[in-house]
Amino acid sequence: MAGNTSTPGATVTSRLLAIVGAFDERHRSLTLSELAHRAGLPVPTTHRLAGELVAGHALQRRKDGRFEVGRLLWDAGLLAPVEGRLRQVAEPYLHDIYAATTATVHLAIREGTEVLYLERMMGSTSVPIVSSVGSKLPMHCTGVGKVLLAYAPEEIQEHVFANLIRVTPYTIVARPVLAAQIDRVRRDGLATTSEEMSLGACSLAVPVVRSSDDTVAAAIGVVVPSLRRDRQRLLGALQVAARGIGRSL
């Protein structure tokens, strides 16, 4: 349960934060009762506080009565120092990739043991895409995820290897196979997937290396129907953009 503040003495601030914290990747919209349950608050209290958040544009209420995160929270989130600066620097380079490839383009960072998508530009080709800006996905079955996993701390890698889940019939869940792929990512500086996150979608991704200290700040990637054609063109566009972002950071 997200933020149980039903105990006596909980402040108004803690209750408001519990309501905001009730939303996550798997719970993007909530009914009043669902919101109250996940926040650990009585329904009347939730109704009153959620109404105030809607009035302040921190939440929004759909016509069917369900609550969603509002524009105020979204705009505030974009001001986070690391993510905001990274998105600002990367945006023109991502546009360059899109212009050169017309593929779906991703910018992502690691958050814990998952991939957090900071930016997505939809390509002109119809490809099944499950990511969205602000969403989090598993590391082991996405191109940007494999890149970030390759440069993650050992304890993060161990956690991911110990919790491999099958998303599609082609998701790699054999630890030795994935470990070998991660080794190749570090050696070759690129990662690929083939229908491992969604059927009909393949991805190619590279690390963004901060030139000042040679650390991996993010990963950028493209999603296409197949990597059999234009692989080198896609890779070239990604590598040029990654170097530009790394220098700018």
Automatic annotation (TrEMBL):
Domain of life of the source: Bacteria
Limits of the IclR-ED domain: 72-249
InterPro entries in the record: GAF-like_dom_sf, HTH_MetabolicPath_Reg, Tscrpt_reg_IclR_C, Tscrpt_reg_IclR_N, WH-like_DNA-bd_sf, WH_DNA-bd_sf
An MF annotation (GO) of this entry: DNA binding
One record GO biological process: negative regulation of DNA-templated transcription
PANTHER family on file: HELIX-TURN-HELIX TRANSCRIPTIONAL REGULATOR, ICLR FAMILY, HTH-TYPE TRANSCRIPTIONAL REPRESSOR ALLR
Location of the HTH iclR-type domain: 10-71
Species this protein is from: Mycolicibacterium rhodesiae (strain NBB3) (Mycobacterium rhodesiae)
UniProt keyword terms in alphabetical order: DNA-binding, Transcription, Transcription regulation
Name of a matching Pfam family: HTH_IclR
Record's protein name: Transcriptional regulator
PROSITE patterns: HTH_ICLR, ICLR_ED
Upper classification of the organism: Bacteria, Bacillati, Actinomycetota, Actinomycetes, Mycobacteriales
